[in-house]
UniProtKB/TrEMBL annotation, chain A:
ABC transmembrane type-1 domain span: 94-283
Similarity comment text for this entry: Belongs to the binding-protein-dependent transport system permease family.
UniProt gene name: oppC_2
Alphabetized SUPFAM superfamilies for the sequence: MetI-like
Highest taxon, organism lineage: Bacteria
Lineage: Bacteria, Bacillati, Bacillota, Bacilli, Bacillales
Name of the featured protein: Peptide ABC transporter substrate-binding protein
TM region positions: 32-54, 96-122, 215-240, 260-283
UniProtKB/TrEMBL annotation, chain B:
Protein's name in the database: Glutathione ABC transporter permease GsiC
Keywords for this protein: Cell membrane, Membrane, Transmembrane, Transmembrane helix, Transport
Membrane-spanning intervals of the chain: 99-118, 130-157, 177-197, 239-261, 281-304
Biological processes per GO annotation: transmembrane transport
Amino acid sequence: MSTGQQGIVLEQTQVKTKNEHSLFRKLIRNRFAAFGLFVILLLILTAIFAPVIATYPPNKMNVTKSLLGIGVEGHILGTDNYGRDIFSRLVYGARISMLVGIGAVLFGAVVGTLLGVISGYFGGKWDSIIMRFMDGLSAFPFILLAITLMSVLGQGLVNVIIAIGVGNIPGFARVVRGQVLSVKHSEYIEVTRSLGAKHSRIIFHHVLPNSFAPLIVYATMSIAGAIISEASLSFLGLGVQPPTASWGSMLQDGKDFLVLNPHMATIPGLAILITVVGINLFGDGLRDALDPKMKA
Amino acid sequence: MGKYIVGRILNMIPTLLIVAIIVFLITRLLPGNPAAVMLGPQASAADIKALTEELGLNQPLYIQFVDYIGNLLQGDLGNSLTYNKPVIDLILERFPNTVILAVCALIISIVIGVPAGIIAARKQNSIFDYLFTTFSLIGVSMPIFWLGIMLVLFFSVNLGWFPATGMGSMEAGAGDFFSHLILPSIALATIPTAQFARITRSSMLEVISQDYVKTARSKGLSEFIVICKHAFKNALTPLLTVLGLQVSSMLGGAVLTETIFSWPGIGLLIIDAIGKRDFVVVQNMVIFIALIYVVVNLVVDILYKVVNPRIKYSSNKGGS
């Protein structure tokens, strides 16, 4: 590498680092986005350190201590109808929410991006076939598609990720297709093509990096939807396998004890609400920082 | 306009065909013989064989698909094994109940969401606007099944104002009917209300800063006329888009709301059918809901054209 080239690389790295710093600064300055980031970090740390934070094994039953109130006998948030510690189940439930939230969105993003790129870049009949299929997939209400898939696939964490991930595919495909269409006739792409670059190089080195900002904003927003969908499926008894702690299944258990122990249903619902509000706030902040044009 | 409507209807056909293909493929994903799954572990081999033949599952996949599409086109949605009646009868029995719930929720969301959005836009950066932004964010983030439970806890269990579950009948009096309708409608209306409010605020903000609104004001028109007659009319187009999307969200949300409040609509029917492994009902109900969604979006597109005649129909709508 010549000195000139090294200089350009160094300059690009400095610009990149500066941009990253400026993005982070913009996010931190936005109080709402900072709160959202705090909620997300708290959730991630809770999910990772669940075994350390939880005060009891989450699935350990003790019927002699069922339906204890908040703070009674060392149970921070009381116990459920099987005598399981609600705080510990809440902490482990964060793991399921994060796994499904990130896993389902990743699944939808990978498949959707691939389809969006093929559709937008190659166009023609590929575009028509893929986008018609996406139209068909979008004709199902999101949760209904997940319910139908779960009724066929059966309960389980991986199946939940797939069922929710499939519903995420059309959104990602549309976002990426739109971005590809907007850049594919740009001069720099034409120049790269005329220099003999292969399609794969053009797509991965030039087209996709330009789709990154809207993609990351859309992915962040989708995580909130995926977390609510997982909770909905578990609430309906179609999510993760019992007795695995999930916020949705905790709500389902609590529904039958509203009179005796209302906090059994209140606490997991609040956890879902705060998490989703946090992710939405962070997503809004990220959108404003990365791409102000997308602001609604 | 006629050409536009015909074009949009023709455009619906491939989408509906793909919907049918997707549902067909999903039900064929079922591991093992669907007939055995439907009958459960106690079923005899003879019963499984009989049901396999009745459902045509012994035929090659492509014949099954052709039969399935043929039946759909004739409006034959098959028979429910657990309810012992044609699926179409179940739909006709349950769908009006879902419509009652959805329409009531839609009315609540428009009546509250749209004026709140207009006021927030008019009073931008005021305390009302900040409160509005906070509540609308909580509204769009709300897990409606949890809200439903909280409404039951507060208004039924604690205050005893409204019944917790079930659907009242007009025969028992209008009071009985509406008292059963209020809580599920509020639960179902929460997300759409927040969405309508947010989109009204943002589109009104865009419109009220434009020159023609300033001109209307400078002509001495009252603020009410300026907002309602001039600004709101032009802010209506994005609202219609959200309306179409909210119908889909409501049909999905109805599954959860109806389950919590034991409201006898199509959502509860789907969950019951899944529990009873009645896949004929599940498969056809899902197609029915997708059809409703596509038709509602067609109506919204036509309304779009009515509101904004500059919109042109393009046959090459490759998606976005």
